[in-house]
Structure formats: C-alpha cells, structure tokens
Design brief:
The complex is a heterodimer of chains A (129) and B (479).
Chain A (H helix, E strand, L loop, with lengths): L7 E7 L5 H10 L10 E3 L8 E5 L4 H13 L5 E5 H5 L14 H4 L5 E3 L6 H8 L2
Parallel strand pairs in A: 1-2, 1-3, 3-4, 4-5
Chain B lengths: L1 H15 L3 E7 L4 E7 L5 E7 L4 E3 L9 H11 L2 E3 L46 E6 L11 E7 L2 E8 L7 H5 L4 H9 L6 H16 L5 H28 L4 H22 L15 H26 L2 H7 L7 H6 L4 H5 L29 H25 L17 E9 L2 E10 L2 E8 L1 H13 L7 H8 L4 H4 L1
Parallel strand pairs in B: 4-5
Antiparallel strand pairs in B: 1-2, 2-3, 6-7, 7-8, 9-10, 10-11
Helix pairs in contact in B: 4-5, 5-6, 6-7, 6-12, 6-14, 7-8, 8-12, 12-14, 13-14
The chains are: A alpha/beta (129), B alpha+beta (479).
Chain lengths: 129, 479
Amino acid sequence: MDLQRKSFQLRHVDAGSCNACEQELTALLSKELDMQRYGIDMVASPRHADGLVVTGPVTDTMKTALEKVWESVPRPRKLIALGDCAVGCGVFQAAYASHGGVGAALETPDLEIRGCPPDPKKILKKLNP
Amino acid sequence: MVENERWIRVHVERKRAGEQLLSLTGDRERRIRSHWLLPDGRIEAESLICEEGRFPSLSVSLPEVAWDEREIHDMFGYVPEGHPDLRPLVRTPRWPDSFYPLKERVAAPQWLDVEPDNPAKVVEGEGMTVMKVGPTHAGIIESGHFVFSIMGENILHLDAHLFQNHRGVEKTLEGLTVTDARPFVSRICGADTVSHQYNFVSAVEQLTGREVPEAVAWQRVLLLESERILSHLNDLAQIPAGVGFTVAHQRGLAMKEVWQQELAAVFGHRFLFDAMNQGQITMSGKERFLTALSSLEREWGKWRKLVDRQRGFHDRMRGVGVVRREDADQLGAVGVALRATGIRLDVRAQMPLYRHVQIAIPHVSGGDVEARFQVRLQEVENSFRLLRTALEQLRKDATRDDWQPPVDVTGEAVGYSESPHGLNAHVLQIKNGRIERYHVRSGAYRNWPVLALAVAGNAVADFPLINKSFELCYSCADR
C-alpha cells in the first residue's frame, strides 16, 4: 500500500455519458492542468489501475461491460463516480435504459464527484485530497 | 400498393431535387413521417400510415435512411418491408421481445440476463481476421463497439455497433412541459448542446408564431458560433494526436481550455449547457468576450503557423480515410465530412437566424483527413468573423429574454441547425403544452455510416486518425 501512496492510476469507462465529463477528464491531461504531475494518470488497462472512473448513468447496454472491467481491477481499488449522472443525481436517472448511476448499478462508489459536468479543477482536488 | 409506390417515388424525387432530409421517424399513431428541407428554407413533410404494422422500405433507393428504418423497427416494431439489413440497431438481446419503448407508455422493462452483443457482419475467407474493439476503450472516449474484418494490416469492412450509450432520451422527454424539458435537451450531447437547445426553442417558437427580437437572434448566433469554435478547437487538437504530433495537440487543447474558461465566465457554463435560457450578454460580459476573442485569435494565428508549416503532418493526412463525393451524397453525409468532399452544403444558409450574414463555405474537395482538417481551420476563422458581427449588433444592454410559450402549445414542428458536427434536426410533437413525441436526428447519426465506409481499404493503424478526423459524438447518435 505504501508504494501506492503517491500513485493513483485510473481506468475510465463511459457508461452513457453525454461526453462532457470525458472532455473534462481529457482537459486534466492537457498541459494547462496536467494531473500527471501529482501522480494521477489514466491507464489503458484495468489490470494496471488502482481505481475505476465511471461516467454516465450506466446504460443497460454498457452494464455488463462495466461489470467486467470493474472485476478486472486488482484490489485494493477505488470506485469513482464522476459527474451527476454517475453519482445518481443527473437528469437521465429515470430514463428506461438507465440503471440510475454507479451506486444502483454496481456498488456504492468510494468517491463521488458531483457536477454537470464537474469543473476539472474540482475533479483534480477530489482525486488529490 | 399504389400508396407504397408513391411513398418511394416522392422521396426519390425530393432527393433528386436537391432537398435535404431532416428526419424519418414514426409515432404511436402508426404514422411514418419524413421531413425535408427545401433549398429556399421551407420544410415539407410526407406521411404514411403503417397498415398492419408494415411500411415500404426506402433504404434501397435512399440509402441514407437505412439506420432510421432499423431504428423505427427497434423502437416501434413497425416493419420496413424490403429493407436489406434489418438487424437490430439500438435494441439488444437483453430487451424483452415485447418491449417497444416508443410504442407503449410503459416504463423500464425487466432486462434479460444475457450478453448485449448483436450479430456482426464480417468478411469470411482465407487470411481474414476479425478484430473486435470496445465497447470500453483504452483512452478517455465514449463507448462504442467496432468489429473490423481485416486482411493483413488492411481493413476490408467495419461494422460499427453503436448505441451502447442509449439512455432513452426521446422517451424521457414524453409528457414533459417545455420548461421541464429544457435541461434534458441541453444534455443530449456535450459537444453540440447549443445546437440541440436552439432546435428545441426554434420548434416551440414556430408553433406559437413568435417573432424573435433581433437582439435575441444575435445572442443565439453568438452562442452557436462560440460552440462551433469550441468543438472545432477540440477536434483540431485531436487530429494531431492521431499521428503523434504532440505539440500541436497540446497547444490545441490549451487554446480550448482557455476558451472554455472564458465561456464559463461570460455565459455561466464551460460547455454552454442551458445557455440559451440565460439572459442576454451584459455590457461587461461583452467587453470580456471581445478581449477573450482577440486573445484567442492571437493564439490561433501562432497555432496555425505551427501546423501549416509541418509538411510531414499534412503528408500523413493526405489520401487517408477518403470519402468519395458520390458516397457522401448517397449516404446523406452532413457537416464537415460532407463539405470536405466538395459538396458545399451548410444549412446556416437556410436558417432564418443567419439571414443578415454571409456564410462562407470553404473550397475543399479531397474528402480525406487533410480535407476535413482544412474545412475546420477555415470554419473557425469564419466563426471569428461571425462573432465580431454579432457583438457589434448587440450594442445595447438588452433586456432579459424571459419569453415563455403559452401553456397550451400544440402541434408539430421541426427545429434544425448546423451543429459543429453537421445538420442536426429535432421533430417536436406537443399537445396542450406536453410533449407527445420527440425525435432527434443529429449530425453524428448521419455520418457514422459514412465513417464506416471511409475506413475500408485503410490500415488498421490509421483508424484512430480517421476516427478523430470525423470526431463523431456517440451520445447524440445513441440518445
């Protein structure tokens, strides 16, 4: 665990987002905000990840894929709900093909980052307390 | 039978006459409706009653509606007879057989406990490999499932399975009032939100006969062009990333970030969500906006020099992901992807909102990644000019636009606009102030089949580059 103290590698899965949360996550990798300098990075494989960032209200078509990715993240691990949709308080919660957020579809997230979409600086602060 | 023949004939004739298809959809009353935009800006509709749940497919003679008819089949259960490929588009094996979300008034179904994958179309034979990518991806992008048939390094066929992000937006809007529906419409898609907001308000205004005050119209031009710049900056920054030109990618993203911060300061949101319902821009907001625009134009000038002089970058984009002009026309391509083939259609020229300005359409024709890059470069600069014109027109501190539609607004109307990703149309059916049916046909929805065609014959390794040169939204296609 000690080795992980300064490293927080995250895998992202979009489960029905409108693409605004994705753009804000991408902004964190731009040199303007550059979250990598704080030891937070996005990785390509869930096997390399310390946590999973989920966006969107969890559509039915993405539910199975999301479960598989989450299962592939080695423990200890963190589940992060990014944006109102994933947290469970977005506008599309009650849509028929939505499972109402990460908490309802998968399990209670370790971290909730609210906003529609959350400001990148706020995301950074939440990921790097 | 006569009626069926007429249905196909009138659509073929409209296409031949240079009209633009806005939408093809159904409703609970078993009607199939199409809407067409005429060159002079008028909108006309065709209508057919689906006898015994069947209607004649247009897809063979009008290939651009292939997806629309599959969607009608998925959502209503009406069968387009003679459709060449009636595999599910939106629905998955997890949907109960009896569940047709737009036909009934029922809520969420009991999903079946099976995998959501639909049958894929692949090329079989010696030396063929099938490569599946997604629905989750290694980077930060939206979810989509791509089935490539490849031979060696080359793509023979791409079967794009989208709609992983299908939330059920159209159904969710049913029963809502205009006021309640606004935040939903605003969040159909993060990249084209202003265009979606405009289409909604425009459809409602058509039904009530509202004369939009000049100042309100200019404010809308300001928002639509601010969004075009934001979206084009994003897409232009992503294309260099596809070939490892990191400096141009990072500087592009930095320009976008600064622009977003300014949009948030002036209009209250980094993506302009709900911006169409905010008040008019204030005098101080205008000052700040002008300063931000000038500063962006300076940075833009430097960035353009950087990308213009990198010959290797342009060589890398030439001849890759070519869309032929005839295919673009046949498949009903729109927006940047269409204009890059030399077909000079931009519906801003038809929109009443832009009647006082000249819309410059870039002269580009290669149909490749380079052409799509060049179209965006020129369109950003055209939008800079449009923003300055709009700002000049907004001289006075205008009063707040707090117009509300009458509570009993009733009828059908189509709102359309040129979103950053092309012609975007909404069909609104409303009765006594409550939405009966809402249909969204976005630019991305039209262009996905075009992208799938454009990648055939290219190397697999070029897929990310070609994909980024279209930069199509998944969310406003999937809804």
